[in-house]
Design goal:
Rossmann fold, single chain, globular
């Protein structure tokens, strides 16, 4: 009997991470589902029990900024003597205007969204390289391709992730390791849960950005009913994990996202900027 493939998913307590862990288990993978807070394990197990895939899930504590926990992940991989897939999903969105966001807050955002990805990737690469195969799926965002006011910490971290992943793909292709970026638009997830505290500074009346920030928040709230079902992203990630070869590098997913990227690429910046403000501040 052929052994199951092994997948690691970071940030598996909710959103894309939870759904991807379940979807991979449904497709026959043994999933190492990692999360920072093990008190959130039950949500994952409740879904897994309903779909009868709980036995294929192993939950490990993993704060991607914690080197000790990353060492524990390496021991888990070593004990299994194999790893086929890494889905770097852990992250959060920090909002706020540059002037009102501290350097420490920027650093905190990068520690999770960027350096955390590098740390976990470095943990699995020796195993994948030695076995001559593997897939690494980095969950980016439309924010990795276009800017947005009041979101520079998050946007900058995702732009950095995009550049890192391009390099990683070029480095690992000769070793049989496939690397891809999944770039979702707006979906019904809780990515804002840890990052709204900074944006709230800009909503206060004494802030010079309060009117601007309220316009942004209003536009975001206006679009919420049209946000996509995150299962769509989980399905895409699982599809990529099952492919022998992953082409191209980037996979945009979400309503209207491809059009936005196409327009930004080909329209002069002055026109793009004018259209942006017209829509945001109308």
């Amino acid at each position: 009997m052929e052994s199951r493939k092994i997948a690691i998913v970071t940030g598996a307590s909710s959103g894309f991470g939870l759904l991807t862990s379940i979807e991979l288990a449904k497709r026959g993978f043994d999933v190492i589902a990692t999360m920072r807070d093990l008190e959130k394990t039950q949500a994952l197990f409740d879904v897994a029990e309903t779909l009868q895939v709980k036995e294929q899930l192993t939950v490990l504590p993993l704060d991607v900024t914690n080197s000790g926990q990353i060492e524990s992940l390496k021991k888990e991989i070593s004990a299994r003597n194999s790893v086929d897939v890494l889905v770097n999903n852990a992250g959060y969105a920090l909002g706020g205007f540059c002037e009102e966001t501290t350097l420490d807050e920027y650093r905190e955002q990068f520690e999770t969204n960027f350096f955390g990805v590098i740390a976990v990737t470095q943990a699995v690469l020796p195993f994948m390289r030695e076995q001559g195969r593997g897939k690494i799926i980095n969950v980016s965002s439309i924010s990795g391709l276009t800017g947005f006011p009041g979101l520079s910490p998050y946007v900058a971290s995702k732009h950095a992730l995009e550049g890192f992943t391009e390099c990683l793909r070029l480095e690992m292709k000769p070793f049989g390791i496939e690397v891809a970026l999944v770039e979702p638009g707006s979906y019904q997830t809780n990515i804002w849960s840890n990052g709204k505290r900074v944006a709230e500074k800009s909503l206060k009346g004494e802030s010079p950005y309060s009117t601007y920030m309220r316009a942004i928040e209003s536009k975001i709230e206006e679009g919420v009913p049209n946000y996509g079902d995150p299962q769509e992203v989980a399905n895409l990630i699982a599809d990529l994990c099952e492919r022998e070869k992953i082409e191209p590098l980037r996979f945009l997913v979400g309503k209207g996202i491809k059009a936005i990227v196409f327009i930004k690429k080909w329209v002069p910046w002055a026109h793009w900027e004018k259209a942006f403000y017209k829509r945001l501040l109308k």
